[in-house]
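for the recovery benchmark. C-alpha cells below, seq after
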C-alpha cells in the first residue's frame, strides 16, 4: 500500500514563478577566482593526458572557491529550490574538449557522474544531428520543443556552449508545485500517480534486457519528502509498445500534469557560459523549439549535459525502483571506470543497483 502524502509540500522546492522573481539568489555569477581554479584544474588534467572517462575528482585539483560552490550546488539541489543557475563558465577561449574537461571537473566535485545513453556518453553533446525522430527512440538536442520532464540521475547539469540565433529559452518547472496542484485540485488521481507506469527504454537497453521497465511511481513519498519521476514521452512509449492505451481519464491526468508544470515554470535565457544544475526529483526541465537555426556544424546550438548521483541525496520509499528503476539498462548509469572495465558489456553482469559509493548497502 502506498503511503500517500495528502498535504501539500511546503518547503522551498514547491515554488512558482513569482517566488523566483522575489528572490533571485538562485542566479549566480562565477567570479575570477572560480575561473582561475577551473583553468588550474584543466592544466593539471591536460598535463596527465587524461580524458573524461579516465579522470577522477582527485585528478582535477580545486581550491576553496570551487569547493564552496560545489557544496552550495548540492545544497540548493537537495534542500532548496532544487536548482541553481550559474553564469560565466569559461567557454569562449577554449576548445570544446577543454570545456568538457573543466565541466566534468566541476561536476565530479558534486558526486558520481554516470553515462547517459546507449553510446555510454559521460558528457553528452546536446546538439541537433538532423536525424528524424524514429518512434520509440530518444532525440535530445533536436530543434523541436522538449516538454517538461526529468532525466535519469539525481542531478542533471546543462551548460550552454553555443546558443541558437533565436536563443530558445530553457525551461525549469517545480514538480513539487505540480504535486500540490494534484493535492488541491485532483486528489482522486494521487493513487494512480503513486502506482506509476512502466517506461519504455527507447532502444537503449542491452540485448538481454526488457524493452520496458517495471512500474515507476510518478510521485512517491518517504518521511515527508515527495519525489517525482515523470517523462510523458517515455511513459507513452511503454503504453504503445505494450498495447495498453491510456483511458480518457488517464490522458486528462497527464494533461493536467503538463499544464500545472507549465504554470509553475520559468524560462531561462542561457547564453554561452551559462548553465543550470537541477534535482530530477523536484525539478522538471525542457526547452522551446528553435526551428529557424542554420544547419552549420560550428554554428549550431551546443549544450553539454552531465548526470550526477549524490550519496544520500534523498529519502526514497523504494530506492531500487524510484532511484534506479529507470537506469538499470544498457549503457546508462555507469561510471567511466566501470565502462573502461567493460562491465556494461557483460550479459548478467548487472550493475549493483544500490551502489556502495552512494553509501547504501546492496
Ligand atoms: Fe532531459
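predicted aa per position
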Amino acid at each position: 500500500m502506498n503511503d500517500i502524502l495528502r498535504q501539500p509540500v511546503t518547503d522551498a522546492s514547491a515554488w512558482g514563478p513569482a517566488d523566483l522573481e522575489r528572490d533571485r539568489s538562485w542566479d549566480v555569477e562565477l567570479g575570477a577566482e572560480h575561473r582561475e581554479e577551473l583553468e588550474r584544474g584543466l592544466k593539471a588534467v591536460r598535463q596527465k593526458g587524461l580524458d573524461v572517462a579516465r579522470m577522477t575528482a582527485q585528478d582535477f585539483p580545486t581550491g576553496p572557491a570551487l569547493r564552496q560552490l560545489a557544496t552550495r550546488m548540492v545544497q540548493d539541489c537537495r534542500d532548496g529550490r532544487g536548482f541553481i543557475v550559474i553564469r560565466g563558465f569559461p567557454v569562449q577561449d577554449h576548445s570544446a574538449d577543454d570545456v568538457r574537461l573543466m565541466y566534468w571537473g566541476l561536476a565530479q566535485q558534486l558526486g558520481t557522474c554516470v553515462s547517459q545513453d546507449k553510446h555510454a556518453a559521460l558528457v553528452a553533446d546536446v546538439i541537433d544531428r538532423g536525424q528524424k525522430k524514429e518512434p520509440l527512440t530518444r532525440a535530445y538536442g533536436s530543434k523541436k520543443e522538449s516538454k517538461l520532464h526529468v532525466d535519469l540521475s539525481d542531478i542533471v547539469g546543462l551548460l550552454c556552449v553555443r546558443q541558437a540565433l533565436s536563443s530558445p529559452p530553457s525551461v525549469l518547472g517545480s514538480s513539487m508545485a505540480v504535486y500540490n496542484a494534484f493535492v488541491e485540485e485532483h486528489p482522486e488521481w494521487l493513487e494512480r500517480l503513486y502506482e506509476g507506469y512502466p517506461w519504455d527504454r527507447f532502444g537503449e537497453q542491452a540485448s538481454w534486457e526488457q524493452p520496458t521497465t517495471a512500474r515507476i511511481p510518478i510521485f512517491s513519498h518517504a518521511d515527508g519528502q515527495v519525489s517525482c519521476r515523470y517523462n510523458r514521452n517515455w511513459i507513452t512509449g511503454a503504453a504503445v509498445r505494450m498495447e495498453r492505451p491510456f483511458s480518457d481519464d488517464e490522458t486528462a491526468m497527464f494533461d493536467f500534469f503538463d499544464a500545472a508544470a507549465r504554470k509553475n515554470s520559468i524560462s531561462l535565457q542561457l547564453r554561452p557560459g551559462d548553465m543550470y544544475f537541477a534535482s530530477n526529483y523536484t525539478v522538471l526541465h525542457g526547452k522551446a523549439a528553435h526551428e529557424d537555426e542554420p544547419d552549420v556544424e560550428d554554428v549550431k546550438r551546443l549544450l553539454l549535459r552531465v548526470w550526477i548521483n549524490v550519496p544520500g541525496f534523498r529519502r526514497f520509499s523504494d530506492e531500487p525502483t524510484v532511484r534506479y528503476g529507470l537506469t538499470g539498462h544498457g549503457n546508462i548509469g555507469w561510471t567511466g571506470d566501470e565502462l573502461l572495465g567493460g562491465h556494461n558489456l557483460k550479459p548478467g553482469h548487472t550493475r549493483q543497483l544500490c551502489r556502495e559509493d552512494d553509501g547504501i548497502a546492496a
